[in-house]
Amino acid sequence: MQRNPFETVGIVGLGKMGTAIAAALVKKGTKVYGFDPNLKESPVAGVNLVNTLEVISKEAEVIVIAVKPNLVVPVLKEFSKPSTFVSIAAGISFSQITEAVPKGSQSVRVMPNLPLVSERGALAYFCEDTAAPNVERLFYGMGTTIRVTKESLMDAVTGLSGSGPAYVLTFLQAMAEGGLQEGLSYEESLSLAMETIEGTLVYFRTLRKEDNHLHPMEVRNWVTSPGGTTIHGLDALERGGFSTAVRDAIKRATERSKELGKG
């Protein structure tokens, strides 16, 4: 059942992620108020750019804090009226948010990623039970939303899905360059690589609907013939440390999220 969107949402900070959230909300019919002292005009059609946090506090039912991590607490302390405050900053803990917001507010820690603007985001959040319905309502229709039961897992979410689009795009570029190296044009290689990545994921998702225990490696084996091209390609990936490098990337990004939380 579709949840009714909030009528009004405030977003403080209209960088890449704040803008992505604003655009997704506008598409749902939400009236969005944005505040960003670095901007003279709104980066998203339909977003009402305002000059003060007071307007955000007065007009918005929910307030998304989308500024740099070191600015989250100072910005939250500027508010005096209770509200639901949603921080999307990496490394800023739930307790830091709760201590900074006005008394009587609901605090939420969320880690979204950029694909949410195309309704394919991966979002995880941590909050008290009373705030959970508001989070689901805010991000409904933007992708997969997961509530974690331990706040410590938010750092892992940051390292996996928060930073994940950059890993995928790096892989995409490497595939395109591989085709280019073998004689295809860059545009041909990029088109083939994009469709291969997207098509594989759509196919695997379809298979998982029929068998939710299906493992990626089982499907990989379907296209890996003895002595064929795929096994030789996979061998090259593993000799290059592909799987280990991906795991290490997530581990290092997770560690950095923890470091940011310490200030």
UniProtKB/TrEMBL annotation:
Gene3D superfamilies: NAD(P)-binding Rossmann-like Domain (3.40.50.720), ProC C-terminal domain-like (1.10.3730.10)
Domain Pyrroline-5-carboxylate reductase catalytic N-terminal: residue ranges: 8-91
Keywords (A to Z) from UniProt: Amino-acid biosynthesis, Cytoplasm, NADP, Oxidoreductase, Proline biosynthesis
Domain of life: Bacteria
Any one GO cellular component localisation term in the record: cytoplasm
Gene name, Swiss-Prot/TrEMBL: proC
Record organism: Leptospira wolbachii serovar Codice str. CDC
EC number: 1.5.1.2
Pathway info: Amino-acid biosynthesis; L-proline biosynthesis; L-proline from L-glutamate 5-semialdehyde: step 1/1
GO molecular function: pyrroline-5-carboxylate reductase activity
Role description: Catalyzes the reduction of 1-pyrroline-5-carboxylate (PCA) to L-proline.
Enzyme class: oxidoreductase
Family, as annotated: Belongs to the pyrroline-5-carboxylate reductase family.
Keyword Amino-acid biosynthesis: yes
Domain Pyrroline-5-carboxylate reductase dimerisation: 151-260
InterPro entries listed in its UniProt record: 6-PGluconate_DH-like_C_sf, NAD(P)-bd_dom_sf, P5C_Rdtase_cat_N, P5CR-like_CS, P5CR_dimer, Pyrroline-COOH_reductase
GO biological process: L-proline biosynthetic process
Protein name: Pyrroline-5-carboxylate reductase
The keyword GTP-binding is assigned to this record: no
Reactions accelerated catalytically: L-proline + NAD(+) = (S)-1-pyrroline-5-carboxylate + NADH + 2 H(+); L-proline + NADP(+) = (S)-1-pyrroline-5-carboxylate + NADPH + 2 H(+)
Lineage: Bacteria, Pseudomonadati, Spirochaetota, Spirochaetia, Leptospirales
Transmembrane segments: none
UniProt binding sites for NADP(+): 66-69
Subcellular location(s) per record: Cytoplasm
